[in-house]
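stage 2 :: seqdesign
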C-alpha cells in the first residue's frame, strides 16, 4: 500500500522508513494536515529538516523526532540530578551486525548521544573536532568527537559498530560529583564528596519502563493536547547538524 492511500484515514503518522525517504513522506503528510513522529535521523540534510519545520509551523502541525533514548528511565533520572555539568563522556559501541550500514555510524548510533548531550547542556557548541575510519563498509564505521560549548562545558563522544560487545554508557562530571549511566542495565553509579570531604558511592537500579511506549504516549499526548513534544523537530535538526559536521570533519582526515 502506498502511504498516500493512508492519509485520508488518519490524523497522525509515524514515519519509520529509510532516512532517504523521510522528507518526501513527511512533506506530503504535513501538506495533508497530519501530525508526525519521524524516526531519527530526522532527514538527510539540514535543508530538508528546515523545510519540514517551516511547513509544520505555517500549518500548525506537530513534528516529533524519534530520539528514543530521551525516554530511557536512566536519562529521565539523570536530568533531575544535573547541577552545572562540566564534562560529558559517552560511549555507544556495538558488534558488526551487517545492518544500519547504509549510513555513517554518526547518524546510526552517535546521534543518540549527541541529542542527549544537547538536551542536558543547552549552551551552543562552538567547536567540534573529530576522527574516524571506514573499515568494513564504505561508510564511517567508528568515530570519536570532541565538542566544546560556549559556557565551557566539553564532551567526548565515541561510537563504533566494530566492538566485540555492546556498550551504552554516559558519564557526567560536575562539581563534587561523578555520575555514570548504564543504558542497557538501567543502572546509575554516583560518586560524590560531602561537606566533610568524604567520598560517597551510591548504586541505583531503576525500574524498567519501555522507552518506545513512553515515546508513543508523549506523541499521542502532544497531538491530542496540541502541545510541544519532548523531542521537537528543532531538537532533531540540531542533532543532525552536529552529526553532519562531525562527518565533515572526519571526511577531511580519511
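stage 2 :: out
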Amino acid at each position: 500500500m502506498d502511504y498516500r492511500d493512508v492519509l485520508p484515514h488518519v490524523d497522525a503518522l509515524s514515519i519509520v522508513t529509510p532516512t532517504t525517504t523521510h522528507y518526501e513522506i513527511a512533506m506530503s503528510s504535513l501538506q495533508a494536515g497530519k501530525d508526525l513522529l519521524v524516526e531519527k535521523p530526522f532527514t538527510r540534510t539540514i535543508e530538508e529538516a528546515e523545510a519540514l519545520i517551516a511547513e509544520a509551523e505555517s500549518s500548525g502541525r506537530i513534528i516529533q523526532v524519534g530520539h528514543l533514548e530521551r525516554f530511557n528511565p536512566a536519562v529521565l533520572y539523570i536530568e533531575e540530578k544535573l547541577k552545572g555539568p562540566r564534562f560529558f563522556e559517552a560511549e555507544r559501541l556495538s558488534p558488526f551486525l551487517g545492518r544500519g550500514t547504509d549510513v555513517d555510524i554518526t547518524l546510526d548510533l552517535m546521534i543518540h548521544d549527541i541529542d542527549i548531550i544537547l538536551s542536558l547542556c543547552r549552551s551552543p557548541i562552538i567547536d567540534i573536532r573529530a576522527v574516524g575510519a571506514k573499515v568494513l563498509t564504505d561508510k564511517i564505521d567508528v568515530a570519536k568527537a570532541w565538542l566544546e560549548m560556549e559556557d565551557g562545558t566539553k564532551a567526548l563522544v565515541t561510537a563504533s559498530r566494530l566492538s566485540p560487545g555492546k556498550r551504552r554508557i554516559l558519564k557526567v562530571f560536575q562539581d563534587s560529583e561523578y555520575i555514570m549511566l548504564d543504558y542497557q542495565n538501567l543502572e546509575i553509579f554516583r560518586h560524590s564528596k560531602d561537606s566533610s570531604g568524604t567520598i560517597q558511592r551510591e548504586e541505583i537500579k531503576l525500574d524498567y519502563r519501555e522507552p518506545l511506549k513512553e515515546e508513543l504516549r508523549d506523541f499521542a499526548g502532544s497531538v491530542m493536547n496540541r502541545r510541544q513534544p519532548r523531542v521537537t523537530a528543532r531538537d532533531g535538526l540540531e542533532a543532525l547538524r552536529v552529526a553532519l559536521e562531525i562527518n565533515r570533519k572526519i571526511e577531511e582526515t580519511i
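stage 3 :: structure notes
- Residues 105 and 141 are 5 Å apart (CA to CA).
- The chain has two domains: 3-67+212-231, 69-209+244-251.
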